[in-house]
Amino acid sequence: MNVAVAKTGSGRAVSDLFASAEGRLPGSPDVIAARREAFESYERLGLPHRRIEEWKYTDLRALVGEVLPLAAAPDAAALKRAADAVKAHAIAGACKLVLVDGVFAADLSDVKALASEVSLKALREMLDKDAGLLKTASTDAVIALNAALATDGVVLSIADGAQLSAPVQIIHVATAASASAFTRSRVAVGKGARATIIESFVAAGAKAYQVNDAVIVAIGDDADVAHIRLMDDAPDAVNVTSQFVTVGANTKLNFFNMTTGAAVSRLQGFITFSGEGSELAVNGVNLLKKTEHGDTTLVVDHAVPNCVSRETFRAVIDDRAHSVFQGRIIVRPDAQKTDGKMMTRALLLSDEAEADNKPELEIFADDVSCGHGATAGALDDSLLFYLKARGLPEKQAQALLIQAFVGEAIEQIADDGLREHVIGIAERWLEQRS
Amino acid sequence: MALLEVKDLKVRVEEREILHGLSLTVNEGEVHAIMGPNGSGKSTLSHVIAGKPGYEVTDGQILFKGEDLLEMEPDERAAKGVFLAFQYPVEIPGVATMTFLRTALNAQRKARGESEYSTPDFLKKVREVSKSLNIPQDMLKRGVNVGFSGGEKKRNEVLQMALFEPSLCILDEMDSGLDIDALRIAADGVNALRSPGRAMVVITHYQRLLNYIVPDFVHVMSKGRVVKSGGKDLALELEASGYTQFEDAA
């Protein structure tokens, strides 16, 4: 086969990326062969660009240009910096599992505090035993790249019937500047289990780093799961995260994502109902400023009948920032009595702010209730004047209205402490803009 | 001393002049009623005093405690003691009334260089005031004015007036949309706030409100000017004869 060597903007050959990383990638020769195959598939596709429909509004070739070399495994100094960042971002009462520059850091994690019904392994220990860890039903280039280069992650298994009182918080810390971290994790939640999973993305002083994370979540029947993601990266970082979630029967999943950082970010979530009678709530908030680009792309697949999905998305866009929401609801031919709705609203705080909303309904069943709505607009002048007439300076009046605007999504977080933590992050964002 | 001095005020909205040289002086402790037919410029006057955007002052001035009010942002005016009770108080979903009240009160205090209220002190103060106005506590937990009846919205305005303790209260068509019982409760709240240091400007189309809030002075506005001023009896006279005579006079 005759393959032209693809060059990146800096002239570095794309294939060098794999060659230079290969020595650090865990896995048996078979796993490495599977990785090479995934990398070749990435090489053929290259970074996604605007002519690929799913990436129309987030052209990674234009926005990111090239994938940075793999970050070195963290040394003692990096772990020290990471420990400080973990302290600052840890949620009270949660069991922390920390990944530093793409490597699981057992010493910074609360491994011993995990409930006995939770089994935890690092991805690097599991690859040889479970070849499926690197496989997903996706042909997306960034996911192929993740399979090729994932250095580590957590493999969590929550036993049937476990009722976890403490949330599990996976914290991704970046300490290495101008380098990339590839992580892949899997969370399996057993039948009848109840759990709260939090994922946080933070920087420990690192600049211009790139994150490519993939998470596979499999939730059994009769479970009750809250899954909260906080993408609070450095302002010049890149974070592309892919989530594959399957939801069993009679299960409740409350999924929440908030993006408050990163020059370029994308959360792509693929959520599939695999059992009947389940309820899914997906709530998202983008808080974007300067020239940040934040993309939330969700595909909710009603593959079976009698499930309910609700998507509520709020974007607050300041300066020249750009928010993208793509929501697709698929209702398969057998999925009668599906109830799927999504509502997305964008608040534009400047004339140059941009919001793209793309709702899509693909309905193949005839007895369903589906709908979507999208709005974009500025703050209401009459509300602003009322608040100012009561003594609130302009910025404070705006902040109060913005909090109310995103509150509708944040309020869906049931746990009081967790909700307060998320509100705290949003408040910090608001303070930084005034 | 003169608390509010409006001197020869001319105001345009877009290309149309609404106030054509209006003058009004309000001293501390006085209650003035401004009456007039629809479109006479009553609400425009209240909006310009509070600083609502969209009005262009082409001539004249407004002094508040001797300071140029028109140079100030709406929030600065509020902190100085100007309070506008809205004709149609807005609903603000997602902002709890308590949060709003505390944020506003503390913003005003901060602007004046006063210490901010602690949460317990604030709660105590709100409880006292809301009790006297017959405002149930659960109303305070709801979003600002969300789902409130007309009477509840006006009572919420009076509650704010009582909390913020302004020196000038402008009541814009406070009686609109209220039944007689709701009107009485709101008016009782206002009357309780009358004091030698505080002035009120009561803007109304109907004399009815003035049975409950009895003014010291009554001004009749027509076509953007004050065309007649007098004592409280002027309101009764108007009730009998209507506004038509003044429309010709203007």
TrEMBL record, chain B:
<dbReference type="InterPro" id="IPR003593">
    <property type="entry name" value="AAA+_ATPase"/>
</dbReference>
<dbReference type="GO" id="GO:0016887">
    <property type="term" value="F:ATP hydrolysis activity"/>
</dbReference>
<dbReference type="InterPro" id="IPR010230">
    <property type="entry name" value="FeS-cluster_ATPase_SufC"/>
</dbReference>
<comment type="similarity">
    <text>Belongs to the ABC transporter superfamily. Ycf16 family.</text>
</comment>
<comment type="function">
    <text>Involved in beta-(1--&gt;2)glucan export. Transmembrane domains (TMD) form a pore in the inner membrane and the ATP-binding domain (NBD) is responsible for energy generation.</text>
</comment>
<feature type="domain" description="ABC transporter">
    <location>
        <begin position="4"/>
        <end position="248"/>
    </location>
</feature>
<dbReference type="InterPro" id="IPR017871">
    <property type="entry name" value="ABC_transporter-like_CS"/>
</dbReference>
<dbReference type="Pfam" id="PF00005">
    <property type="entry name" value="ABC_tran"/>
</dbReference>
<keyword id="KW-0547">Nucleotide-binding</keyword>
<keyword id="KW-0067">ATP-binding</keyword>
<dbReference type="InterPro" id="IPR027417">
    <property type="entry name" value="P-loop_NTPase"/>
</dbReference>
<dbReference type="GO" id="GO:0005524">
    <property type="term" value="F:ATP binding"/>
</dbReference>
<protein>
    <submittedName>
        <fullName>Component of SufBCD complex, ATP-binding component of ABC superfamily</fullName>
    </submittedName>
</protein>
<dbReference type="InterPro" id="IPR003439">
    <property type="entry name" value="ABC_transporter-like_ATP-bd"/>
</dbReference>
